[in-house]
């Protein structure tokens, strides 16, 4: 195991990997954003990921989400856990196949260092942000708002208000002829993941 | 005269000003919002009662579906 660990992280900064191995990150929702975030955080060597989502993998998910044809019909959290284990056994994954509510929020995610909001509906995003920030005003929360469409890289940015960060263009909704596409969704997801890794290093130092 | 800042824009502060007053003044009608006053979150259920203090920094963020 130690040998595999050394080989896997051979070209990574050992100090960083050490901090990330000692970190716990929660991902609320494992669709287009969450599944991509989980892939990047596992590759970085995050010690523990807590993932929650009640959905099942559908064929149309494959245009944006990190699942495969032979996983259609499986619960997303179970399929994602399998995929992450195939990348690295050094990230422990705790899957919760359930919808996040104000009552189970702290039960599922109470132990995380950072929570990442990767939900689909604006209503759900609001519920999560409001309740989480009231429960844990000092913990970093990284959300996303405005991810649909193609191109327009220059509109994607990060807004920080205290411990809350929001990544996205803040305008593009999925509606009337505007569709989410893999590249742009993954850009936003990886900006969330990249920010998370940076904040963990700041905390760890 | 005391003022407050809403998303970087300075507006006059008024006695008894709530989050709802601010939203109306700014013509923000978007349904899904997150509001922070001086970096502290104010829940939707408190928008009618929360008194915005003079000098407050109010941030109104639009939440858009898609994940």
Automatic annotation (TrEMBL), chain A:
UniProt entry keywords in alphabetical sequence: Nucleotidyltransferase, Transferase
Keyword check for Transferase: yes
Superkingdom to which the source organism belongs: Bacteria
Record bears the keyword Nucleotidyltransferase: yes
Designated name of the protein: Sulfur carrier protein ThiS adenylyltransferase ThiF
Automatic annotation (TrEMBL), chain B:
Protein name (record): Sulfur carrier protein ThiS
Lineage: Bacteria, Pseudomonadati, Candidatus Cloacimonadota, Candidatus Cloacimonadia, Candidatus Cloacimonadales
């Amino acid at each position: 195991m130690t040998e595999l660990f050394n080989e896997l992280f051979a070209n990574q900064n050992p100090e960083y990997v050490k901090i990330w191995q000692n970190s716990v990150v929660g991902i609320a929702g494992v669709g287009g954003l969450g599944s991509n975030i989980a892939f990047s955080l596992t590759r970085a060597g995050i010690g523990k990921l807590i993932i929650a989502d009640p959905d099942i993998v559908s064929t149309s998910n494959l245009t944006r989400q990190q699942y495969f044809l032979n996983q259609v019909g499986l619960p997303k959290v179970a399929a994602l856990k399998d995929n992450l284990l195939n990348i690295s056994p050094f990230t422990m994954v705790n899957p919760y196949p359930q919808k996040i509510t104000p009552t189970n929020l702290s039960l599922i995610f109470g132990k995380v260092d950072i929570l990442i909001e990767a939900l689909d509906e604006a209503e759900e995003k609001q519920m999560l942000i409001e309740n989480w920030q009231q429960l844990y005003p000092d913990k970093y929360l990284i959300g996303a708002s405005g991810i649909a469409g193609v191109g327009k890289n220059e509109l994607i940015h990060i807004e920080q208000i205290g411990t809350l960060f929001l990544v996205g263009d803040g305008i593009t909704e999925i509606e009337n002829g505007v569709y989410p596409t893999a590249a742009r969704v993954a850009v936003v997801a990886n900006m969330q993941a990249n920010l998370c890794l940076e904040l963990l290093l700041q905390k760890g130092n | 005269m005391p003022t407050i800042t809403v998303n970087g824009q300075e507006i006059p502060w008024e006695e008894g000003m709530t989050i709802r007053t601010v939203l109306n003044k700014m013509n923000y009608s978007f349904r899904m919002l997150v509001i922070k006053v001086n970096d502290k979150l104010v829940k939707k259920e408190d928008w009618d009662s929360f008194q915005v203090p003079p000098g407050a920094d109010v941030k109104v963020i639009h939440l858009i579906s898609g994940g």
